[in-house]
């Protein structure tokens, strides 16, 4: 058993429960999304169809719709509760600000319910870290993109919540946090999936809290529960909680507890198919050993 494998049913349930309060709590998600949008200023592409993969309650979807008013924006999320909130927002948003047509689709990024070569841009803000097989996920995103299409995404790197991870060390034998891929490994995955010219960079953003409960409460409000197979099945006992608090308190700086997020940004292009000298297409097939 892979102890870090994510239980998708549990994950979906957590995001459904968090949907109503998500927008009030997702400060970091909006900030990262805004920084990604700034990067589009340097991209000369006018997509006719955009996939927002893991669009949640649709804040980023609406920004894309306003930026590309002639496009169709497909907002995909695994949690129907998130999409219901997004649909409610999209109707009044278009009345006030116009923008592109928005369509909500419930589905999993790892098995997209879209045809091959059907979109010119795939956008994904802080969502692919919830995928169990990241290399296969990039292959799937490559599949739905048209040639010369753009993939732009953000995700979390290994140093995300390093303080909380350190505080949990020695508390018990269970997993308490997801495992995140290194930026350089993600770049290699993009190349292996068939993407060209991948550009990767990262930055660390730190939120501060008065106490440990505040850190965990914020994670709960955005649906970021521990959904790994190696998680504990019951509530944390008093002794374990006391050790967690004691460990985290050692990291207090300037009167606050830090919670660091390593944010990884990436973008890459789907190149035109290669051809032989006589014009025959060269098709690259990727095989994966199980």
Tally of alpha and pi helices: 9
Q: What structural class do you assign from the helix and strand content?
A: alpha/beta
**CATH level-1 class of the domain at 8-159 and 179-205 and 262-269:** Alpha Beta
Strand order of the largest sheet: 3-2-1-4-5-7-6
Largest sheet: 7 strands, mixed
Beta-strand content estimate:
15-25%
Radius of gyration: 20 Å
CATH superfamily of the domain at 8-159 and 179-205 and 262-269: Vaccinia Virus protein VP39
- The geometry reads as globular
The separation of the N and C termini measures: 14 Å
CATH fold-level name of the domain at 8-159 and 179-205 and 262-269: Rossmann fold
SSE sequence, one letter per element: HHEHEHEEHEHHEHHE
Architecture of the domain at 8-159 and 179-205 and 262-269, CATH level 2? 3-Layer(aba) Sandwich
What is the overall pLDDT average? 89
- Unreliable residue runs: 285-290
Share of helix among residues? Answer: 25-40%
Say how many strands there are: 7
How would you portray this structure in words?
This protein is α/β, with parallel strands linked by helices. It has a domain at 8-159 and 179-205 and 262-269: Vaccinia Virus protein VP39 (Rossmann fold, 3-Layer(aba) Sandwich). It has nine helices and seven strands. It has helices at residues 8-25, 27-39, 59-67, 80-97, 134-144, 162-168, 183-192, 212-221, 238-249; strands spanning 49-53, 72-77, 101-106, 119-125, 145-156, 196-209, 257-269. The chain has a seven-stranded mixed sheet, with helices on both faces. α2 (27-39) runs parallel beside α3. The two termini are 14 Å apart. The relative contact order is 0.17.
């Amino acid at each position: 058993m892979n102890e870090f494998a994510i239980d998708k049913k549990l994950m979906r349930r957590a995001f459904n429960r968090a949907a109503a309060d998500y927008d009030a709590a997702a400060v970091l998600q909006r900030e990262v999304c805004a920084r990604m949008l700034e990067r589009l200023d340097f991209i000369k592409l006018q997509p006719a169809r955009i996939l927002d993969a893991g669009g949640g309650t649709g804040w980023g979807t609406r920004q894309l719709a306003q930026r590309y008013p002639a496009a169709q924006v497909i907002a995909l999320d695994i949690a129907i509760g998130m999409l219901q909130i997004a649909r409610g927002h999209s109707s009044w948003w278009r009345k006030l600000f116009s923008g592109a047509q928005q369509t909500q689709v419930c589905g999993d990024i790892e098995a997209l319910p879209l045809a091959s070569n059907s979109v010119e841009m795939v956008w994904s803000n802080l969502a692919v870290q919830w995928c169990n097989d990241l290399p296969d996920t990039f292959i799937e995103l490559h599949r739905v993109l048209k040639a010369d299409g753009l993939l732009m995404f953000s995700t979390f790197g290994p140093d995300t919540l390093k303080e909380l991870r350190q505080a949990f060390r020695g508390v018990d034998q269970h997993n308490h946090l997801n495992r995140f891929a290194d930026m350089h490994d993600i770049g290699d995955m993009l190349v292996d999936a068939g993407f060209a010219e991948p550009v990767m960079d990262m930055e660390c953003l730190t939120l501060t809290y008065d106490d440990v409960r505040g850190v965990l409460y914020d994670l709960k409000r955005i649906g970021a529960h521990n959904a790994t197979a190696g998680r504990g099945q019951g509530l944390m006992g008093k002794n374990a909680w006391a050790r967690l608090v004691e460990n985290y308190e050692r990291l207090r700086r300037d009167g606050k507890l830090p919670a660091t997020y390593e944010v990884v940004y990436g973008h890459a292009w789907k190149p035109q198919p290669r051809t032989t000298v006589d014009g025959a297409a060269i098709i690259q097939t990727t095989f994966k050993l199980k």
